[in-house]
Structure formats: structure tokens, C-alpha cells
Amino acid sequence: MSTPAAFDVHWRTAWSALGIDAPPATLRDALLARYAEPHRRYHTLQHLGECLDAFERERTRAQRPGEVALALWFHDAVYDLQAQDNELQSANWARDALRAAGIDAAAAQRVHDLVMATTHDALPVDADAQLMVDIDLSILGAPAERFAEYERQIRAEYAHVPPEVFEPRRRLILGHFLARDPLYQTPVMRARCEAQARTNLRGAIGD
Asked: Which UniProt keywords apply (predicted)?
């Protein structure tokens, strides 16, 4: 998991890639506070740190690395367990924050679109969106111990949902990802995560 110092480096590096200094730390701190909300169990600072660390390994593959990095910062910024538009609210926040910081409208909209790609409703076709989605889904291809922890964290987030409702819905979601062929759209993430993800998903679903 990233340390406070590492988050600060990730933050400043993302803005630097866009050619400007990072805005006041109040925005970064507001985002970190969201990921630290007490109702979260998986969509936490741990998840944000894992995504940012994964992106640093792959940043040379991004067409617009600053935009992907900031989209990752914002992608789960809003996470209300009762809402159906978390990604949209997060994407709107990202777009508004970038515009307020002086980023041009086209770039701010691209960041908005990258966040919206994490709804996972359709396979992305844009190269940066493919990288963004693959990083968000890299947890599916994590080592077995981390994947098991992830599954426990998701269940804890939805502890208010009774097992007879949660379990079939969860199998449906995981089955949706397992049915993708390939699951990962970028070659490097496919090579790193695909086989383990399929093993993890089959075990979780019970196939």
C-alpha cells in the first residue's frame, strides 16, 4: 500500500505530466479522505495505492499518462453503496476539478471518459481506457491470498445485503468478467494477470 509520501509523489507526478504544478493540497487531501471513508472495505486507500503503483509500472504505455493517472485518482472518489451513479459523480468531479486547475476542456473531458470506462459496461477501444480498465481489474489477477482478501473486503462492504441476494449477484458479476476473452485488453496486463485471474474467478464462482 502506498504511504502518504508515495501518494504525494503520485499526485505531483500526475499533474506534472499535464504540464502544470499540482493544485493546492486540499484537493488531494479531499480525495484521500474519500478513499478513507469508514463504510469502505475494498474501495479504499489500499485500492487507490495499488492502482497508482500498477500505473507507474505501465506509465510508458500510456498515450497521455497524466490523464490516466488523474483518472485513477478520481475513479472511486465517490462511493455510495446505495447509489447507482458513483462513476458519473466521480467523473464529473474529476472534470470540474481539472477545469478549475486550468486544464483545457478536451483533456478534462478525456479524464471524465476514462473514469466512466470503469463502469465496465463495455470493452474500451481507446488505448488509455484499455490500460485504465486493466489496472482497475488487476485485482482479479492478484495472487490467490490477495484475491481472497479482496473477496472478503467486497463482502464486508455489502454486509447489509443478505447472503441469498449477495451471493448470486456476486457470481453473476464475476462470471461476466470470466466470460470476457480476453479479460485484459493490453498485452502486458494480459501476460501478467490473465491466467491467474481465470483461476481466481473460477474458484470464486465455484466452477
From this structure: Receptor
- HSE-CB at 196 with a 13 A cutoff on CA atoms is 17
pLDDT tens-digit readout, 132-176:
999 999 999 999 999 999 999 999 999 999 999 999 999 999 999
pTM beyond 0.90: the answer is: yes
Task: Report residue 166: phi and psi, to 5°.
Answer: -65, -45
In 3-state terms the chain splits into helix, strand, coil percentages (rounded to 5) of 70, 0, 30
- C-alpha angle 200/204/206, rounded to 5°? 115
The number of angstroms, rounded, from the C-alpha of 137 to the middle of its chain's C-alpha atoms is 7
Question: Can you tell me the distance from the alpha carbon of 151 to that of 145, in angstroms, rounded to the nearest whole number?
Answer: 10
